């Protein structure tokens, strides 16, 4: 491991932050980010860092202060505010107490913040306060945990790191650990760092650089020691190819996602779904395919900090039969039933120790290991699932290192429960979620006016959305714009609705990305203007291929995937007022959209037994959404303007004035109607919402 310290970069942080926060906290922020940028040191909100400095209070008094990383903050992107300040002199007085409960400790930390609005300090704040060094860094370095989490780990740590590092046997994080760490520090004068067994590494220094580079030095020593003591690599009788594993993932994902969904008790939204992220790498496959894989996998996490992300144990599927999905479903179902029973029994064994106000977690696993496929991780959204995946990846790598030289040894069940249900740990979890946070949607024709508005509306409700349209600049530009705001919850997928292979591949791309699909918005369509007597047959067939066959192919593929996933779903067809009130010279569009509308109505009859709802929205003319012009009106608008002797603005005014409410129908209005169905506000299927301001002739009947 190499030091990334740069005096030039450090100076930039001082220039940016020192005037407001002071030089100490500016350098603390820089060094924290260096640690957070290295996943082999800390992952997703893990680790800790502090600096002791001073603070001028409202009375003008200069007092000692400690600035320590807030609970759950990500060191890779932390700002100075992510290190809340506390009154150091008071915190040190707490060491005189014999006991301090977690609830009492949280109260003492919260009531002695320098700013009452600050985030809650870390569970390890008192450990940082009781040690008298200026800069302190605490990491969960993979190489350190590979030494501590095995039988005879203390001896390995001593051999690898030397006498200048104190070693503390595992102590429950919180007040007890703070007192034990301070005692170990005082009992070993002159040590430069401390290893907390089955927990991590603590380093310190008079400067931010000294502490940071000491971390790098010691982790590098641990890495070298592990490399030199590699004796027993994993034995993989029959390795699975990456290509085979990825093919299996594409077929297995919706089945597994459906089985991992938890019953909600809400008849309109009967399942709390999950988003899946696979880990299909050479290392992961060799782990699950190895002779030692199951034994190693079914051991506790590397550190208590990982518990709320991946649970005490993963789910292992023995000899999954990927060639028979029915049998595979039965295998996973049985394994899940056993996992749930075991987790509930584990909670029951320790129920008397459950802190007040802390609710039991769902019994479903966060990590699933399947020989021949790899590792699959679940979360309430893609962020949570990727956090679990990253932690699972490092867990497998460390356990592989341990197996190469010894025997893995994790925390006891009592400690696992205590930390899984620790109030500080629960405080790291996000409270509440958006209505569609656990959903995956696919929108066809998304690069147009109505499509882009629907996509934005779904994303604003937390949905993960596949933006699909014909390949090209329009799709690429929209995807890029959306990803700048919604990050990993949106992907662009080229898709031609008239091509069955393209539709299947488009759905497959989404499934490989997030594990399944819950909502399909059938929006792609085309129009033309022609009197029936003059209409070229080939032109009509082109429209029929897009509007009718395209709708059929998308609905059919959605139905197939929903059946495999077995948690219901929603299809919303963007229809048109022309289905009910066609216009002259608009016969091809009106007829083909009417056919698509009828297909959707029939789908509502056929798919209801699978919990799938199929509904329609029926808008009148929508001309644009922001800078995006309607492709349909680019095609038919000139004819309508000529027929009525109107300008473009005049045509929009004409359509506004012809409805009862004199309303200008917008793409956002259409998106709102789609959201009504997508969020299941009523138990409705086979219905149409007119979005037209009130057109009596277009009322569905």
Keywords:
alpha/beta; 25 helices; Rossmann fold; 701 residues; L-fuculose-1-phosphate Aldolase; elongated
How would you concisely characterize the structure shown here?
The chain is of the alpha/beta class. 47% of the residues lie in helices and 14% in strands. It folds into three domains: 7-228, L-fuculose-1-phosphate Aldolase (3-Layer(aba) Sandwich); 242-427, L-fuculose-1-phosphate Aldolase (3-Layer(aba) Sandwich); 440-630 and 665-690, Rossmann fold (3-Layer(aba) Sandwich), CATH 3.40.50.
Strand content: 5-15%
- Count the domains: 3
Structural class, from secondary structure content? alpha/beta
Cα-to-Cα separation, first versus last residue: 71 Å
- Unreliable spans are none
Please tell me how large the radius of gyration is. Answer: 30 Å
What is the subunit organization of this protein? single chain
- CATH topology grouping of the largest domain: L-fuculose-1-phosphate Aldolase
| CATH A-level architecture of the largest domain | 3-Layer(aba) Sandwich
Tally the beta strands. Answer: 22
CATH superfamily of the largest domain: Class II aldolase/adducin N-terminal domain
What summary fits the major beta sheet? 7 strands, mixed
């Amino acid at each position: 491991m190499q030091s990334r310290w740069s005096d030039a970069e450090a100076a930039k942080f001082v220039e940016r932050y020192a005037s407001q926060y002071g030089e100490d906290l500016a350098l603390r922020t820089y060094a924290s980010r260096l640690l957070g940028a290295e996943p082999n040191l800390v992952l997703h909100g893990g680790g800790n860092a502090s600096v002791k400095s001073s603070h001028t209070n409202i009375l003008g008094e200069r007092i000692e202060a400690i600035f320590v990383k807030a609970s759950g903050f990500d060191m890779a992107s932390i700002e100075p505010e992510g290190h809340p300040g506390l009154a150091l002199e008071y915190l040190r007085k707490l060491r005189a107490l014999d006991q301090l409960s977690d609830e009492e400790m949280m109260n003492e930390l919260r009531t002695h913040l320098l700013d009452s609005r600050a985030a809650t300090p870390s569970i390890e704040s008192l450990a940082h306060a009781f040690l008298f060094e200026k800069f302190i860094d605490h990491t969960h370095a993979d190489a350190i945990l590979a030494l501590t989490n095995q039988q005879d780990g203390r001896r390995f740590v001593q051999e690898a790191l030397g006498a200048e590092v104190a070693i503390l046997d595992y102590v429950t994080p919180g007040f007890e650990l703070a007192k034990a760490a301070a005692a170990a520090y005082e009992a070993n004068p002159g040590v430069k760092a401390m290893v907390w067994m089955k927990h991590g590494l603590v380093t310190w220094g008079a400067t931010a650089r000294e502490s940071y580079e000491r971390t790098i030095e010691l982790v590098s020593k641990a890495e070298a020691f592990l490399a030199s003591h590699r004796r027993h690599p994993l034995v993989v009788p029959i390795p699975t190819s990456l290509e085979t594993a990825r093919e299996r993932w594409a077929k297995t994902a919706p089945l597994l996602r459906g089985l991992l969904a938890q019953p909600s008790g809400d008849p309109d939204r009967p399942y709390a779904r999950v988003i899946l992220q696979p880990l299909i790498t050479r290392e992961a496959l060799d782990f699950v395919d190895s002779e030692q894989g199951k034994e190693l996998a079914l051991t506790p996490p590397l550190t208590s900090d990982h518990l709320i992300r991946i649970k005490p144990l993963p789910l292992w599927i023995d000899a999954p039969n990927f060639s028979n999905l029915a049998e595979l479903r039965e295998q996973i179902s049985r394994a899940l039933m056993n996992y749930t029973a075991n987790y509930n029994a584990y909670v029951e064994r320790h129920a008397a120790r459950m802190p007040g106000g802390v609710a039991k977690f769902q019994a479903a696993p966060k990590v699933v290991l399947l020989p021949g496929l790899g590792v699959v991780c679940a979360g309430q959204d893609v962020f949570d699932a990727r956090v679990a995946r990253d932690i699972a990846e490092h867990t497998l790598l460390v356990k592989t290192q341990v197996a190469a030289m010894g025997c893995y040894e994790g925390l006891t069940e009592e400690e696992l429960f205590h930390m899984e249900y620790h109030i500080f740990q629960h405080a790291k979890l996000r409270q509440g979620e958006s209505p569609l946070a656990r959903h995956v949607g696919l929108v066809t024709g998304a690069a147009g006016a109505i499509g882009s508005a629907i996509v934005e509306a779904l994303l604003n409700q937390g949905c993960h959305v596949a933006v699909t349209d014909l390949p090209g600049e329009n799709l690429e530009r929209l995807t890029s714009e959306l990803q700048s705001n919604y990050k990993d919850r949106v992907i662009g997928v080229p898709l031609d609705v008239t091509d069955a292979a393209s539709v299947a591949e488009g759905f497959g791309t989404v499934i490989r990305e997030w594990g399944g699909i819950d909502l399909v918005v059938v929006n792609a369509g085309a129009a033309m203007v022609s009197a029936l007597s003059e209409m070229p047959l080939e032109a009509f067939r082109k429209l029929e291929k897009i509007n009718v066959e395209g709708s059929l192919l998308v609905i059919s593929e959605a139905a197939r995937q929903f059946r495999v996933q077995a948690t219901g779903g929603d299809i919303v067809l963007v229809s048109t007022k022309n289905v009910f009130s066609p216009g002259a010279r608009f016969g091809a569009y009106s007829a083909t959209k009417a056919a698509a509308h009828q297909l959707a109505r029939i789908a509502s009859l056929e798919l209801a037994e699978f919990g799938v709802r199929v509904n329609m929205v029926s808008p009148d003319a929508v001309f644009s959404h922001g800078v995006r012009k309607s492709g349909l009106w680019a095609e038919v608008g000139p004819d309508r303007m000529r027929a009525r002797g109107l300008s473009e603005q005049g045509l929009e005014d004409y359509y506004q004035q012809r409805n009862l409410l004199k309303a200008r129908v917008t793409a956002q209005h259409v998106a709102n109607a789609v959201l009504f169905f997508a969020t299941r506000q009523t138990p409705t299927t086979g219905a149409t919402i007119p979005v037209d301001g009130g057109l009596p002739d277009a009322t569905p009947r």
